[in-house]
TrEMBL record:
It is found in: Mitochondrion. Residues 85-110 are annotated as: Disordered. GO terms for cellular component: mitochondrion; ribonucleoprotein complex; ribosome. It comes from the Eukaryota. Pfam families: MRP-S33. Residues 91-110 have a biased composition (Basic residues). This is Small ribosomal subunit protein mS33. InterPro entries: Ribosomal_mS33. Keywords: Mitochondrion, Ribonucleoprotein, Ribosomal protein.
């Protein structure tokens, strides 16, 4: 009687091991087929974040193409406009002072 019980318990252990191995094999095959990452421990990995699409291209698509970067004529025209505006301000006395001749520098000299 005792040997039969031990033999039955060995058989059930063997069946459990066999079932566990089969389930593990099925899970590995399913992960390989469908491109999932197998995580038997259940610990957090970074795969959820790594699986997402990169968003840089999408954000860049929101903004229109900037012609100023590539066209030197546009930049030259803007620089010319800036210099003419600065010259008009200087004639009226509203331009920024030269470096070292501002209000704080004049206070220090007194």
């Amino acid at each position: 009687m005792l040997s039969c019980v031990m033999q039955c318990s060995r058989m059930s252990n063997f069946r459990l091991l066999l079932a566990e191995a089969a389930l593990k094999g099925v899970a590995e095959a399913r992960a390989r087929i469908f491109g999932h990452v197998l995580n038997p421990t259940g610990l957090p990995s970074g795969n959820k974040i790594l699986r997402k699409k990169l968003i840089g291209e999408k954000v860049a698509a929101w903004y229109p193409y900037d012609i100023k970067r590539d066209d030197p004529l546009v930049m030259a025209r803007e620089e010319k406009a800036r210099l003419s505006k600065l010259e008009m301000q200087k004639r009226r006395g509203k331009a920024a002072p030269k470096k070292g001749q501002g209000r704080r520098a004049l206070k220090r000299n007194k």
